[in-house]
Design a protein that fits this description.
5 strands, HIT family, subunit A, about 140 residues, alpha+beta
Length: about 140
C-alpha cells in the first residue's frame, strides 16, 4: 500500500511505531496514557465511510486486535477507541489504555490537563512494549 502524507498535527503529536496491513501505528506523545493512533493509508479518507467495506472491516480488525493487545500488555482496565477528527480531518482512530487510577479517569482523555511528552528513555520503553504487543497480532 502506498505511503500517504501524514497530517501535520498528527506528525507533531505522535511518534512512529509500526505498519499494519491497512494502518500506520503511531504513539501519542503523552506519557500520561498508553495511547496509539491508527491512520489508514487511504488518500483523502476523513470518515470511516470513505473506506471500502473491506477496508472498514480491516480497520476494525486492526483497532480491536491492537486494543486487546494493549489492554493486556499495559494492564488496562478499559480501552477507549474513538474517531473524532474535529481538529485533524485525516481519518485516524485513537486506541487508549485506561486505568482506574489514570489522570483523567473516568472522564475522556481529550481536553484533560496538558500532555506530558515522553522522555527519550520512556519513548524507547513504551515503543518497545507496543511493538512487542503488535508482533503478537494476527491480522
Amino acid at each position: 500500500m502506498n505511503a500517504i502524507a501524514l497530517d501535520e498535527r498528527l506528525k507533531a503529536d505522535t511518534l512512529p511505531v509500526a505498519e499494519l496491513p491497512l494502518c500506520r501505528v503511531l504513539l501519542m506523545n503523552d506519557a500520561r496514557f498508553p495511547w496509539a493512533v491508527l491512520v489508514p493509508r487511504i488518500a483523502g479518507a476523513s470518515e470511516i465511510f470513505d473506506l471500502t467495506a473491506d477496508d472498514q472491516q480491516q480497520l476494525w480488525r486492526e483497532a480491536g486486535a491492537l486494543g486487546a493487545a494493549m489492554k493486556d500488555g499495559f494492564h488496562g482496565d478499559k480501552i477507549n477507541v474513538a474517531t473524532l477528527g474535529n481538529l485533524v480531518s485525516q481519518l485516524h482512530v485513537h486506541v487508549v489504555v485506561r486505568t482506574r487510577n489514570d489522570a483523567a479517569w473516568p472522564a475522556p482523555v481529550w481536553g484533560h490537563g496538558e500532555p506530558r511528552p515522553y522522555t527519550q528513555d520512556q519513548q524507547t520503553s513504551v515503543r518497545d512494549r507496543l511493538l512487542a504487543q503488535i508482533e503478537r497480532l494476527a491480522l
